[in-house]
């Protein structure tokens, strides 16, 4: 529907506005999508300058208003935005009003680059804005302008801490503009969730939002038209949690739309079947009799386990046991593969940790634990058996969706991140979102030092400890990125043995994440992190640290994506500060083993001390490109699987 009328619940858009037609994704071939994305940049730069100039002119005018005149201008602006949309003169005045309100309520200056980023988001695009350039306020500006136009706005960020922090930080600004703001976190009950979504602007995480959408969807199984009529007439039961999918602004858009899009969001219901639990326990015990390389083969490249003919013969022998589950060959073999994965593939302190007699999944993108998340098809219960934890109830799928299918249902969608360029083609093809880069406010002073490769992890940790001692003596702070909880513990033990005081930030301590990261810029401080890297938290440098060269980052993780390398590097040299980064890797890294021929790794091992920066970068980049291609394939397959599943679930049935 093409209209200047912006989407909001009501007679025109319905009680629950959302896009029900074909996905927003582009139908052009990928090569034309990217090629067509480039020529706009030259004239857009001129447009950005004109935007800033006009906004600043209005802002100087509004700075002369007293409080009553300012509030009257805000009230007069709202109907103009509803009538004219977000691209006319009213939108310019809204930007200026917001900038002045920010100065009056928060004491902050809204920078030109933040205005540009907000404008990009309001135009249904993604803004690549470097780490430390003020994305929180840019998002707040876009959300406030959109909400002033009457649209319910969802601001989606990385975790519950950032949900509360960002909403509380910007609450005075929103209040001055007459806007309400709500927070949706993991522990809210349905009534509080409904009230939070009823606000003009609702801050939430992607997972909480999607699960609430699925819960609403399960109530609409009687048909869309009947449900909408009930809502408009007030004859339905409890109101839905959301007010539809009018507009969303996605913070850390690459993490949510790309990295986390390889796993479907499944709304599960407990089935509590004692017979199923006994079956899982017996299956896990059976795997102790299966021999690697004889009865099953572990495919290191795909991380899958395949049963051999010998393994299937062993399973046939136990098929005579009582119980329908054992007699069903497909179910039996799939469960055995899950049990083998639980036994041999999923590792404690890497894929999960055990805390308070519970198995907590570690998100492989953020490095944080994922509250309330369980592996499906009995895998979670078998890992609980392996770790001698009380068993959670088996789950059955009630509804599911993927991010690739959920976010295109928003009628308006935008977002920001510091690392989008590498994924611009997929973001345009799947979500219909072009990427625009926001210029830096100050020149970049980051120094990138040569990369190094070590024969094994022990040699790597020894070299890192020596480097830490050297820089700590000079008074410089260090931030070291490791791949897993186990790696951070191993490095911590080496630093302790060397007498180097330090702080460890991993999934065990993620509740103190913001505090630990905020202090990482103190003189001579050593902070060891997993791949969470404290996104969303500023690292403030003392003057003495700036004089010594700023924060130094050592990347000791070969990430699955080159974007994540940039995210970690972005922790230093923010907003024109000095800083430096270097990448140190070990040849026994899991990504190398998975993506490089074993003969090549064996040949390189004796020569690692002499390998130059260029060769190390090529080797690491090649492994990452293979992994990126594999993940991209997983996302495409998941999207197709999700389309098929939606046709089967009662929640589905919508035309595509």
**Structural class by SSE content:** alpha/beta
Stretches where pLDDT is under 50 for at least 5 consecutive residues are 26-40, 650-656
N-to-C terminal Cα separation, in Å?
Answer: 15 Å
Strand content: 5-15%
Binned, the helix content reads 40-55%
Strand order of the largest sheet: 3-4-2-5-12-1-13
How big is the Rg? 26 Å
Give a written overview of the molecule.
With 656 residues, the protein is α/β, with parallel strands linked by helices. Helices cover 47% and strands 14% of the residues. It is built from 26 helices and 20 strands. The longest helix has 36 residues, at 613-648. The model is unreliable at 26-40 and 650-656 (pLDDT under 50).
What features would you highlight for this structure?
656 residues, alpha/beta, 26 helices, 14% strand
């Amino acid at each position: 529907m093409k209209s200047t009328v912006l989407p909001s619940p009501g007679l025109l858009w319905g009680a629950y506005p959302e896009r029900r037609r074909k996905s927003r994704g582009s139908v052009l071939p990928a090569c034309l999508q990217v090629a067509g994305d480039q020529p706009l940049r030259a004239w857009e730069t001129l447009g950005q300058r004109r935007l800033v100039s006009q906004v600043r002119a209005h802002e100087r005018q509004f700075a002369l208003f007293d409080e009553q005149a300012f509030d009257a201008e805000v009230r007069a602006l709202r109907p103009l935005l509803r009538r004219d949309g977000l691209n006319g003169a009213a939108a310019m005045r809204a930007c200026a009003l917001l900038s002045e309100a920010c100065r009056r309520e928060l004491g902050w200056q809204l920078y030109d680059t933040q205005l540009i980023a907000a404008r990009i988001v309001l135009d249904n695009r993604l803004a690549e804005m470097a780490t430390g350039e003020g994305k929180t306020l840019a998002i707040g500006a876009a959300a406030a302008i959109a909400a002033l136009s009457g649209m319910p706005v969802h601001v989606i960020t990385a975790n519950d801490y950032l949900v509360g922090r960002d909403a509380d930080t910007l609450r005075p600004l929103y209040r001055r503009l007459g806007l309400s703001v709500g927070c949706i976190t993991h522990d809210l009950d349905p009534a509080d969730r409904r009230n939070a979504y009823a606000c003009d602007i609702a801050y939430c995480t992607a997972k909480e939002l999607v699960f609430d959408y699925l819960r609403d969807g399960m109530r609409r199984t009687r048909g869309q038209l009947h449900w909408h009529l009930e809502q408009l007439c007030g004859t339905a039961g409890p109101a839905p949690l959301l007010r539809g999918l009018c507009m969303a602004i996605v913070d850390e858009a690459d993490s949510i739309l790309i990295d986390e899009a390889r796993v479907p969001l499944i709304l599960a219901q407990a089935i509590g079947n004692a017979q199923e639990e006994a079956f899982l326990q017996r299956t896990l015990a059976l795997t102790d009799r299966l021999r690697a390389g004889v009865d099953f083969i572990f495919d290191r490249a795909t991380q899958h386990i395949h049963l051999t003919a010998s393994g299937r013969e062993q399973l046939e022998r136990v098929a005579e046991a009582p119980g329908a589950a054992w007699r069903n060959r497909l179910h039996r073999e799939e469960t055995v593969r899950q049990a083998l994965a639980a036994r041999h593939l999923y590792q404690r302190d890497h894929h999960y940790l055990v805390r308070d007699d519970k198995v907590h999944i570690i998100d492989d993108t953020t490095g944080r634990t994922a509250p309330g998340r369980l592996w499906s098809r009995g895998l979670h219960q078998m890992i609980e058996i392996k770790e001698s934890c009380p068993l959670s109830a088996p789950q059955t799928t009630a509804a599911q969706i993927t991010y690739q299918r959920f976010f295109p249902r928003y009628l308006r969608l935008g977002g920001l991140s510091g690392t989008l360029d590498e994924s611009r083609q997929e973001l345009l093809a799947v979500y219909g979102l072009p990427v625009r880069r926001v210029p830096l406010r100050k020149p970049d002073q980051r120094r990138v030092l040569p990369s190094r490769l070590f024969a094994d992890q022990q040699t790597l940790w020894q070299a890192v400890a020596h480097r830490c001692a050297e820089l700590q003596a000079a008074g410089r702070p260090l931030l070291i990125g490791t791949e897993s909880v186990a790696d951070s513990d191993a490095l911590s033990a080496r630093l302790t043995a060397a007498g180097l005081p330090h702080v460890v930030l991993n999934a065990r301590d993620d509740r103190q994440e913001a505090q630990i990261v905020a202090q990482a810029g103190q003189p001579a401080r050593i902070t060891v992190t997993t791949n969470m890297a404290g996104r969303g938290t500023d690292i403030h440098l003392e003057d003495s640290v700036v004089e010594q060269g700023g924060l130094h980052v050592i990347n000791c993780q070969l990430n699955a994506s080159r974007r994540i390398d940039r995210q970690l590097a972005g922790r230093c040299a923010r907003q024109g500060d000095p800083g430096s980064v270097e990448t140190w890797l070990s040849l026994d890294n899991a990504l190398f083993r998975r993506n490089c021929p074993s003969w090549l790794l064996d040949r390189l091992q004796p020569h690692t001390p002499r390998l130059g920066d260029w060769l190390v970068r090529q080797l690491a980049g090649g492994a990452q490109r293979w992994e990126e291609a594999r993940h991209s394939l997983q996302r495409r397959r998941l999207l197709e699987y999700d389309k098929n599943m939606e046709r089967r679930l009662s929640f589905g049935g919508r035309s595509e």
